[in-house]
Design a protein that fits this description.
This protein is an alpha/beta fold. It is 42% helix and 16% strand. The chain has helices at residues 14-22, 34-46, 58-69, 83-87, 89-96, 112-120, 150-163, 174-181, 185-189, 215-227, 236-248, 253-269, 296-304, 330-345; strands spanning 2-3, 51-55, 75-79, 99-103, 131-137, 166-171, 194-198, 209-213, 276-277, 284-288, 308-309, 311-314, 317-321. The protein has a 7-stranded mixed beta sheet with strand order 2-8-7-6-5-3-4, sandwiched between helices. Strands 9-10-13-12 form a 4-stranded antiparallel beta sheet, covered by helices on one side. It has a two-stranded parallel ribbon with strand order 1-11. It is globular and about 60 Å long.
Length: 357
């Protein structure tokens, strides 16, 4: 089985399991868990922040950032394809009490002009919602893992300082962006008030995310983490997995990027009429079937018969995510399974497909 539904599908390696078993642990509620403290100190240093906080999930890290930077009734500006909008709109309204002002950008990369237009599109009388936060994402999941250029992030950061807006960077796959662009971690810390990174996406850890920011922000986030039910006790075993991932699985992310690029190239070479495939910049391949008379779900279902698993992320879009544990030679199998599925299913359209064999 070649499982490309998500890069969260990795399992701990034997080395990671050994590191987890050796972890020195205590009770994190008393801040006495040695491995958790080490992880938080390491990540704060890595991103050039004063402090960081270990959380169970990336969603919790994002929601804690929202709670720290906003008050109920505030507004957050973000791209419509961002994780905050596609997956976290309900908890953002429920837990933080904020509204999301979404922007339709060309490539998912927010600009100062985008943000200004979004803010100016509504009345900003003091009685109404005020825009207090900008939410960024890097890499951008639903934009085929697009890597946001550092210069674009810096432009938004400078704009936010002028407008007194807070900036949170959802960096669930930030290490993919770092490897793909060659940008050091501290540069991302320098263009955001807070940032989050997931250890279970691409890095092979079974669990966990980090939220980094100022000391005061992280202290407030720690309070809300407990309020949200995310406080942990002997979390060091899982923190040890995250530390192992940071030490061993970051530099190899370029292997995942190369595999995604190979799948992209092979699908392109198949010359299947009617599909559109986004340019690959990291470890995500997204193929649009809007011009065809078939659904993404049907294609995914047919491919599963070949032992290839992808995800239908919308009615007409299929996503494949490469990750640790997927072999390089699988690219040909994935591309051929996709071609076969489309050729077999697209029987009502008049276009011409390359269906040799």
């Amino acid at each position: 089985m070649i499982d490309l539904r998500s890069d969260t599908l990795t399992v701990p390696s034997s080395g990671m399991l050994r590191a987890m078993g050796r972890a020195a642990v205590g009770d994190d509620n008393f801040r006495e868990d040695t491995a958790t403290n080490e992880l938080e100190e390491h990540c704060a240093f890595l991103f050039g922040k004063e402090a960081s906080l270990f959380t169970p999930t990336g969603t919790m890290s994002n929601q804690l950032a929202l709670r720290v930077h906003t008050r109920p009734g505030d507004e957050v500006v973000l791209d419509e394809a961002s994780h905050f909008n596609t997956y976290e709109s309900a908890p953002s309204a429920d837990l933080a009490g904020v509204s999301l002002n979404t922007v339709r950008t060309v490539d998912g990369v927010l600009t100062a002009e985008n943000i200004t237009d979004a803010v100016d599109a509504k009345s900003r009388d003091p009685r109404y919602s005020q825009t207090t936060m900008i939410a960024l994402e890097n890499t951008i999941n639903y934009r085929a893992g697009r890597v946001v250029p550092l210069v674009a992030l810096q432009d938004v950061w400078r704009f936010s300082r002028k407008k007194n807006m807070r900036v949170h960077l959802d960096g669930a796959r930030l290490f993919n962006a770092m490897i793909a662009s060659g940008t050091p971690a501290h540069e991302y810390g320098g263009i955001s008030d807070t940032l989050s990174v997931c250890f279970a996406k691409g890095l092979g850890a079974p669990f966990g995310s980090i939220l980094a920011g100022s000391r005061d922000e992280i202290e407030e986030a720690r309070y809300y983490r407990k309020s949200y039910g995310g406080a942990m006790h002997q979390s060091g075993h899982l923190a040890a997995a995250a530390l192992y991932a940071l030490e061993n699985n970051v530099s190899r992310l370029d292997e995942d990027h190369a595999l995604a690029r190979r799948i992209f190239d092979l699908v392109q070479q198949a010359d299947i009429d009617g599909i559109a495939i986004d340019e690959v910049q990291s470890n995500i391949v997204i193929i649009d079937l809007s011009a065809l008379a078939i659904s993404a779900e049907a294609v995914v279902s047919r491919m599963s018969e070949d032992g290839v698993l992808g995800m239908a992320i919308s009615r007409h879009r299929v996503r494949f995510v490469t990750h640790l544990g997927v072999q390089p030679e699988s690219s040909g199998v994935v591309a051929e399974s996709f071609r076969t599925a489309v050729c077999e299913l697209d029987v009502t359209r008049k276009g011409k497909l390359s269906c040799v064999g």
